Amino acid sequence: MSGIKLATILAGLSHISTVISAVILMFIPLFAGTEIVAQSGGLNQLSETKLTLIEMNGTGAMLTLIFPWVVTGLSVVSTIMGAPERKETKKVLWRWRSYSWGAAIIMAFFVALSFTTLGIFYIPALSLAIGAAIFNK
């Protein structure tokens, strides 16, 4: 054992950054919303406010926040299980290493599809997941 591999460190940092992004999205009001301040006789007075992701979309948004965390968790597990020090066959090691590439590709799709809303917060996690896949040799 020579220590922790760079791929494992990058995958762990990617996993931690998804948690940080989720906490930011859950607790810091970043999205614009409106609320009715006064309602009388068919006339409404609206006020623009900033809302958190949960306030804006309800608890259904939790799945959107959990998904990147699960994907980067798979990347962490694959870098640990694909360690070259293991005395398993090369086919099994290759299979574990391919999971980190799969996780990076899935994160890339997630960031691309949700770039204008949530994806921008997960760009650091994506770059770290790609780095983990590259260095997972």
Question: Tags for this entry?
Answer:
137 residues, 5 helices
Task: Characterize the structure shown.
This protein has about 140 residues and is α+β, with helices and mostly antiparallel strands. Helix content is about 60%, strand content about 15%. It has helices at about 5-25, 55, 60-80, 90-115, 125-135, and strands at about 30-40, 45-50. It has a two-stranded antiparallel ribbon with strand order 1-2. A hairpin with a 2-residue loop joins strand 1 (about 30-40) and strand 2. Helix 4 (about 90-115) runs antiparallel to helix 5. The protein is elongated and about 75 Å long. The chain starts with 5 loop residues before the first helix and ends with a helix. The model has no long low-confidence stretch (mean pLDDT about 85).
Enumerate the strands of the largest sheet in spatial order, edge to edge or round the barrel.
1-2
- State the secondary-structure class: alpha+beta
Main sheet specs: 2 strands, antiparallel
Topology pattern, helix = H, strand = E: HEEHHHH
Tally of contiguous helical segments:
5
Uncertain segments are: none
Mean pLDDT figure:
86
Cα-atom radius of gyration = 20 Å
Helix content: 55-70%
Total E-strand runs = 2
N→C terminal distance: 16 Å
Instruction: Indicate the proportion of strand residues.
Output: 5-15%
What's the shape? elongated
